[in-house]
Amino acid sequence: MARGLFDAITLNSGATFKNRLFMSPMTTQSAFYDGEVTQQLIDYYKFRSGDAAAVIVESCFVEDKGRGFPGAVGVDTDKKVAGLTELASTIKGEGSQAIMQIYHAGRMAWPELNGGAVPISASPVAALRPGAPVPREMTEEQIEEMIKLFGDATRRAIQAGFDGVEIHGANTFLLQQFFSPHSNRRQDKWGGSRENRALFPMEVMKEVQRVIEEQGAENFIVGYRFSPEELEEPGIRFEDTMYLLNTLATLKPDYFHFSMGAYTRPSIVESNDPEPLITKYLAQRSPELATIPIMGVGSILQRENADEALQLGYDLLAVGKGFLVEPNWVQMIKDGQPVPEYAHVAKQKELLIPTPLWDFMDSMVMVKDPEEEKRKYERLKELQKMKLEFKPGTYTVAAKGHNSEIEMKVTFSTERIESIDIDSGAESEGLSDQVFERLPQQIIDGQTLNVDVISGASASSQGVIDGIAEAVELAGASSEVLKARPKPTVQWSKEVVEETADVVIVGSGAAGISAALRADQLGLKTIVVEKMSFVGGAISISGGNQVVLGSKLQAEAGVTDDTVELMVEDFMKNGSGKNVPELVTLLAKNVGPTTDWVHEYMGVDYDMEGGLHVLAEYRKNRELAYKDGGHGFAASARKALDNSNVTIYLQTKAEELFTDDNGKVTGLKAVEETGKTHNITAKAVILTTGGYGNNPNLLSRELNKILFYGTKSSTGDGLLMATAPGVDADTRLMEYGKIYPNGVEVSKGYAKSTIGGNIAVLKENGLLVNIDGKRVVNERASNKEVLEKLLEQNPQMLYILLDQEHFEKFSDAVAEGGIAHEDLERWISNNGMGNPKAFRAESLTELAAKAGMPGNSLAETVALYNEYVEKGVDEEFGRQPEFLQKPVGEGPYYLIEQKPRFATTMGGLVANDHLEVLNKAGEAIQGLYAAGEVVGGVMGTDSPSGANNAWALTSGKLAAESAKESVEK
Fold first, then answer.
1. Do 828 and 894 contact (CB within 8 A), yes or no?
2. DSSP assignment, residue 525?
């Protein structure tokens, strides 16, 4: 088989590649939130198409819950064919063939990327990654359905005009998970022996080929990408891979594609064996496999690399970095020109590289260090083999919890942790109970610290883990070993329970609590299903303010002249007139009686001593706080629930609504964390699942650019169930969220708020500057004005500039809001590497240099501001004199990023004034109700203070009353 770089090659399908050079699939993370193709993607691929034989389009998910990264391209619905057609025709129009890589991430489809869905895999074994979730074991039916999904994806690729598909069996995704003895512990026909573990990849390829034949797609190409080895124990070894490839070769695909970082890579398992894997492959392939071209990848940049790769025995070459830094890579090496090693920092726009991919290139300095990755895995393997010996005894330790220190007594024998006794102290009642009950038992049973934090109580969970780690060290052993031990394999239950109720409520936040207690009060048999480990939702950790118009408490506090009409007008103004008038009116008319009911029936106390709050958005004082804030509300509500007849299932996620032939909702399916399924038949279902801010697939493009700082449970579960085919609920105002400035990006896409620190320092000095070191706004303007200026920036970021005195004030203030002094110090020590961006320097000139700002910019900005302080007049931006208290003083000086953040979503389901959910035809869906944030349109584009809690409690109570009427019909 000829191996000239520019020689053509004919494949088993009859297709021909014009040369041996391909653009490798690289994840741009630049599709729309739902996986649709964007113009940015089309431009990116067009710029790199033409000279390459084919362009392999990055991994396209075959199922909506199978994304492995944000901004992934989808081929999961027929709706996406139009966009994919434009992409394929663009690539082909430039002269390259278009190949679509198709995949499902399996256990690597983390919940935060997939609307909160629990990932699936061959077996319930978590990946060896920090924080990796334990997946659900796929049923036989799910496996068969998944195989069909790969066929459906192939059909769509054909319809879109692609020249072929590459089945992604590498990078620890689902096909590799089925073949790996680490992730596949099954004992049925899909697991156990190597032959059985190879069955799923075989059946996927057969289905792909069946669809190609069914569609009459002549010369349609089928490739298969594979990872040659795994470091996991047990894991895939190279002889296993050769068995798989020799088996797949009997189906006569068109090519196989190595997935590795260097085309010369030797074994990562046998570290003393320097032989490149390609030479092992050539020696061990069957005669049938020898007829199928093999594609190499990794570290192919210059012409000499490509020539050497062909000489080693590869038939085809996939190139990634080369096409990123030089879109005309093929012509460059053909002409014998050197290819740049790196992309110039100023050429992102010129190279048409989407920002997520550019950020990745920047963070990885264009290339991973395979040796470093290998060292990490070798260290992990070493730790997992170590045995521990403890000094017997009981050790007392204290670790940081959510509210306070957690004291623990940890008892060891020589070989194991024997007991863990925890004083929960001042930790949030209910919120952390399961942490102190379940987590210690998991640690003892598994003798590992590699356990999942309890959902909704991550701070307390981490406190327990850290405290036990400290005790391990005191007992003379290594906590690193315990942290490296595998997570316990979860035994999934296949039990199915059939239940009946009058009403089933999904979610136990404020709206769910209100609905449940009112339904119980009305004599209805009530079940609540809650996916988190605690009752209370977002109100548990909120400041706990509520609108109380028309209540006895408002009158007692001295306001008797407030009216429904005034409140509706205030809300409409605050919501830019986009509020649904009948829902705002419903709230205004009923929030008073609801408040009295919450106080008198639920037993919730309000802070009458603090009195009604004076707020600019309200013409009458109509907001009160709960006594002890949201925590106080939740504690009282839990007591009321304990004294009721309401059945509550925690860590149980509602997954599907049941309907009859007439479209009436008749109940739901809910699944416990253990896999136990509850099929609940009910006369009414009330959705109180909250917002969707933590589900990128439901957010607009604009909101997806904003950092999320709300509860991670806000994944829009109720919206997804209600809008599913067969229920077909309508939605509105989905593009809106309540956005604030002053966020810091503590992890990708997630924020914490510095608002407390900003308020503390901006009273005196402290400046907001852009990436050029210039002020752009009055720092004491309204949140809205500051936000507008922040959103104008490119990128959307400002810095708060502080001297030493005010940094100390800032640091103390943000600590009260959940950003510890240690967090700030760690971010600053990172010196701008990663997120959040924070810098410290002795001089303003040095600080500007560290932040990449023009040399004298900060010094000039501060000098000018200090002049304004001396004059008492801000001549640039009109900062009020009372906030020009002090000049910027002595260093060191600090810059801390300020990014937009949001938590509350404004959109949701369409509901009428009986809280019945409406379908797309505007008709009430019988048996289905909604309350709280899941209902769209109440607040318009923005929610005023205390409004969300008021709406949640009022609508929850009213939904239960409407459900009562439905049950009695």
1. yes
2. -
Place of tokens 């899909």: 190
Helix (H) or strand (E) holding 801: strand 798-802
Residue 170: exposure state from Cβ atoms within 10 A (0-12, 13-18, ≥19): buried
- The secondary structure of 111-160 as a DSSP string is GGGTTTPPPEESSS---SSTTPPPPEEPPHHHHHHHHHHHHHHHHHHHHT
More confident residue, 423 or 708: 708
Q: Is 191 left (phi over 0), alpha (psi -120 to 50) or beta?
A: beta
**What tens digit of pLDDT does each residue of 330-375 get?**
999 999 999 888 777 667 788 888 877 777 665 443 433 445 556 7
Q: What's the one-letter identity of residue 588?
A: A
Distances (CA, A) of 239 to 168, 194, 229, 703: 20, 11, 9, 48
| AA identity, residue 870 | E
**pTM (predicted TM-score):** 0.68
Task: Say what angle helices 947-968 and 510-521 make with each other, to 10 degrees.
Answer: 30
Interval 45-64: pLDDT, tens: 999 999 999 999 999 999 99
Helices 821-829, 804-815: axis angle to 10 degrees equals 130
* CB neighbourhood size of 600 (10 A): 10
* Cα-Cα-Cα-Cα dihedral sign, residues 12, 18, 20, 23: negative
Q: Which two tokens stand for residue 573?
A: 């103004």
What is the number of other CB atoms lying within 10 angstroms of the CB of residue 267? Answer: 17
SS3 221: strand
Residue 830: is it exposed, middle or buried by C-beta count within 10 angstroms (0-12/13-18/19+)?
Answer: middle
Q: What's the pLDDT tens digit per position in 86-143?
A: 999 999 999 999 999 999 999 999 888 888 888 999 999 988 776 788 899 999 999 9
Give the tokens for residue 947: 């409004």
Pair type for strands 16-17 and 9-10? antiparallel
List Cα–Cα distances, 776 to 23, 176, 394, 442, 807, in angstroms.
43, 51, 58, 52, 21
| Residue linked to tokens 């194991």 | 416
Comparing CA positions, the residue from 748, 772, 901, 752 lying closest to residue 824 is 752
How do residues 746-765 score in pLDDT, each as one tens digit?
887 889 989 889 988 998 99
Q: Strand runs (DSSP E) across 579-672, as ranges?
A: 623-625, 647-649, 652-659, 665-672
Task: Give just the sign of the alpha carbon dihedral 589, 593, 594, 596.
Answer: positive
Dihedral in degrees, nearest 10, Cα atoms 144, 148, 150, 154:
160
Neighbours of 145 (CB within 10 A): 12
d(CA 188, CA 207): 21
Tokens, residue 113: 């990327």
Instruction: Please count the other Cβ atoms lying within 10 Å of the Cβ belonging to residue 852.
Output: 13
The answer to whether residues 281 and 296 touch, using CB atoms and an 8 Å cutoff, is no
228 DSSP 8-state letter: -
pLDDT per residue as tens digits for the range 484-510: 887 766 667 889 999 999 999 999 999
User: Which single residue is written with the structure tokens 């650019």?
Assistant: 705
Q: For residue 597, how far is the Cα from the chain centroid?
A: 38
In DSSP notation, 161-212 reads: T-SEEEEEE-TT-HHHHHH-TTT----STTSSSHHHHTHHHHHHHHHHHHHH
Q: What pLDDT is stored for residue 426 in this prediction?
A: 46
Please classify residue 669 by burial: count the beta carbons closer than 10 Å to its beta carbon, then call 0-12 exposed, 13-18 middle and 19+ buried: middle
How buried is residue 697: exposed, middle or buried, by Cβ count under 10 Å (0-12/13-18/19+)?
buried
Model confidence at 79, pLDDT cuts 50, 70, 90, reads: very high
Distances (CA, A) of 930 to 193, 692, 729, 934, 938: 49, 14, 11, 7, 12
